[in-house]
Inverse folding.
């Protein structure tokens, strides 16, 4: 009886950066699969249109700027009071600003650290302790294949994503002790408003729905990392084991293309 009641309880997920791109498509997919979904981003109109596009009525908007730690804490409180305890959190919000050596600036670095790294940390801080206390919950952090090794013009973006990857590797076994699951999501190039701005060739670029498919399959499986598309992920993993001389020969060529 208890198990049947638990099965019927609504599963509540929170997706950050859900106004556009990967987060938006993922929120829709989760709602289609029966999840009650809390969605956050700064642009309220994006969230409103997402809620309006969801015929199931399962998507609920909670505007948030993840760079504001206090606001992140309050948002999680409000979500759980309105929708019930979260069981899945997808920390996806992030942004990209290319930064060449000539344009290197502390301001750009700080902006990306504030959003991609510290913004994700604020959201993590606001849910992780609840999950540890409950001995339940699944957290997924969206980093990037660009976090594997330093790539030209990605000194700032790559550093934030490498930071997320390292942080997740550190936390994974500690959270497992408390029965909290942590998944790392490392996408390659995905067609979203973020990549629309890129003026360089994007190898293995995939539509957003294909990215959502990889993510959903991964979330339902047991692996720590969801890296996609697979061939590009393997190529990027190979770069990690290349000796520096070969690796820099490749990245110098990337500068000339
Ligand atoms: N697209 C790719 O090829 C790719 C590849 C690897 C990794 N990723 C990662 O995947 C994630 C999603 O990327 P995407 O391509 O879907 O990006 P996107 O289309 O630009 O969407 C990003 C979302 O994050 C939100 N966001 C940005 N700054 C925020 C802030 N300070 N507070 C709250 N929300 C914020 C944006 O909404 P507002 O601006 O309204 O806040 C938007 O809804 C990012 O972490 C990105 O780094 C993407």
């Amino acid at each position: 009886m208890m198990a049947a009641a638990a099965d019927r309880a609504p599963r509540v997920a929170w997706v950050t950066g859900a106004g556009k791109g990967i987060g938006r498509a993922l929120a829709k997919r989760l709602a289609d699969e029966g999840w009650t979904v809390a969605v956050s981003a700064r642009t309220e109109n994006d969230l409103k249109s997402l809620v309006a596009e969801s015929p199931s009525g399962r998507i609920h908007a909670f505007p948030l700027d993840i760079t504001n730690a206090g606001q992140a804490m309050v948002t999680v409180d409000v979500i759980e009071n309105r929708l019930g305890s979260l069981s899945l959190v997808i920390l996806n919000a992030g942004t990209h600003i290319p930064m060449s050596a000539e344009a290197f600036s502390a301001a750009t670095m700080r902006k990306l650290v504030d959003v991609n790294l510290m913004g994700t940390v604020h959201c993590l801080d606001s849910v992780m302790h609840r999950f540890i206390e409950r001995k339940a919950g699944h957290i997924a952090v969206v980093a990037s294949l660009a976090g594997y090794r330093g790539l030209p013009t990605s000194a700032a973006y790559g550093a934030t994503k490498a930071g997320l990857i390292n942080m997740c590797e550190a936390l994974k076994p500690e959270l497992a002790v408390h029965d909290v699951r942590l998944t790392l999501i490392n996408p390659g190039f995905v067609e979203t408003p973020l990549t629309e701005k890129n003026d360089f060739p994007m190898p293995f670029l995939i539509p957003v729905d294909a990215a959502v498919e990889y993510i959903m399959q991964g979330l339902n499986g047991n692996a720590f990392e969801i890296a996609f598309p697979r061939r590009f992920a393997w190529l990027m993993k190979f770069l990690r084991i290349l000796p520096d001389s070969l690796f820099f020969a490749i990245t110098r060529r990337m500068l000339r293309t």
About this structure: Residues 1-6 have pLDDT under 50 and may be disordered. Residues 106-134 form the longest helix (29 residues). The beta strands are 12-16, 36-40, 59-61, 86-91, 138-142, 181-187, 225-228.
